[in-house]
Amino acid sequence: MTMNRIGLKLGVAIMVLIIVILLSLGLAVDRLFTTFYDAQMKEDTHEIAAHFTTMAASGEDSSQSMIRTFAEFSNVKVYWLYADGRVLTLEGKKEQPSPSFVRKSENRRLLSGHAIEFRFQDGQHNRYYVVGKPVKRDKSTRSAIYIASSMKQIDNSLYRLRGLLILSGLGAFLLALGMILIMSKLLSRPLLQMQHMTGKMAKGDWDARLKIGGRDEIGMLGRSINDLAASLQRYRDTRQAFFSNISHELRTPVTYLQGYTKVLADGMVQSDKEKEQYLSIIYQESVRLERLINDLFDLSKMEEGQIKLTMESLDLKGPMKAALQKVKLKAENKHLSLQVDVHEHVPCIHGDRQRMEQVLLNLLENAIRFTENGTILVQLKKQNNAGVVIVADTGIGIPNEELPFIFERFYRVEKSRARKYGGTGLGLSIVKKYVEIQGGTVHVESTAGVGTTFTLTFPFEEKHEKGGMIS
């Protein structure tokens, strides 16, 4: 079984983050309580030392006895420093020898009238907080008192606190570990499905689809992959259909050319009228073949990004008139009415005359091809700051479900209908490309059985240099 590396990496990353957070919180809580206990002990010890110093400074004979009694209740050790350097321990019922933390340097400092404080650890690793205060009488220091508070209780409290922190941290770690395992699997599962699907797509299986449940970024990525698979599937299907159709489209005129040329070459023509008919067929098929070759040539240039335009100040009336003149005979042969509506005072645009004529010619030929009776309207008008060209027909129309794809390369609406009416599936994709690289937009509206309307919108010309090549 393949290791879930995405889930593993995600889990490790989150786990490291959890560990860092737990350690930081644990250290912060430990430091907080340690600081609190230390501050509390310092305050209590200094307060006791102040009381004992006041009692000792009173000069009463019972001072040491009272201090010893209070020391037992306060759970501290009291050491009395005399002026001659002797230190007596006021603990229990009798005096004991001085402890090891009492040093001559601290004694001299105390007897000179300065208070001291420090920490001390004995041989049994017991820690003490020691405060020394001078006992002053008549503004002179004759003795001093050491107060040693045991830190054992604080150390025990901190030890228990740290144990609780470790247990709670371990519990939180295990809980987080379980949650991370679940979450990493849930989060990585759709990514693994995407990996599996893209692997299928790389092998040519574009029929697979992801089951998308969420609406988050991962869900959006899954839907994008599904859309990509659908587009690739359409591309494959339309490309296969294109090669099949283009081979048929190329074979047909070539067959006609070969057949009728052989007839003429062999002298099998019975009359001049028949000869003219054959020559007319040869000419029509050569034109058809030329159109196919031009479409393929344009497609090749589009694929390589080598389309070059000669941009100039362009009056749309010119290419529109030229395109209408070329399709006029075809429309008359099908008894179609060509209606032209050109508004006056439509400013020039910045475009390529030849490519603009090709765009209009493609749209008009499509309109004629798919219209059996009725009218074809070509309109030029001004709308806001743009020139608008409309090509509308009363033909068979395009189904709504096909409209989003008609500008895709190789795409042909209803393959059976495409065979009947001809075409290569390249005309509209070429139209869209040429319109967009001239700064325009193309929009289509259609109703099956009613007709189709193409709307081209081009912004009016700004200040451009005359001529020039763009790619």
Automatic annotation (TrEMBL):
The keyword ATP-binding applies. It is an enzyme of class 2 (transferase). Residues 185-237 form the HAMP domain. It is found in: Cell membrane. The keyword Transport does not apply. Keywords: ATP-binding, Cell membrane, Kinase, Membrane, Nucleotide-binding, Phosphoprotein, Transferase, Transmembrane, Transmembrane helix, Two-component regulatory system. This is Circadian input-output histidine kinase CikA.
